[in-house]
TrEMBL record:
SUPFAM superfamilies: lambda repressor-like DNA-binding domains (SSF47413). The lineage of its organism: Bacteria, Pseudomonadati, Bacteroidota, Flavobacteriia, Flavobacteriales. InterPro entries: Cro/C1-type_HTH (IPR001387), Lambda_DNA-bd_dom_sf (IPR010982). Residues 8-62 form the HTH cro/C1-type domain. This is Helix-turn-helix domain-containing protein. It comes from Chryseobacterium pyrolae.
Amino acid sequence: MTTLGTKLRKLRDDKKMSQSEIANILGVSQSAYNKWEADQAKPNTDNLVRIADFHETSIYELLDEKSVIQNNTDQATGTIHHNNNVTINNNLSEELVDTIFKNQEQIFKMIEVQTKLIENLIKK
């Protein structure tokens, strides 16, 4: 089982960046990012979208504990090969990518609302 924190650490190490550098790019504090890597806290939906976009992966791959992220970029073609054998070419339409991220964001917002509803029902 691979946690989100473990994946974030691997992705950051692969880019040879510090926590401060990644936190700055994502627009969060270094301590918040540190907590995500340490699995002491989870990023909100907006931050998950930013993280996935920055690392050129999907939110689902980040959150799926059975998935292991192995990003290998072919420098000649600009193609990113993921461990689930899905290949994303840099020539993919930006519109399609934007639509995918918007859909992912909407799904996570719905999950967040459902979670709050369930929490409220449990409290009663």
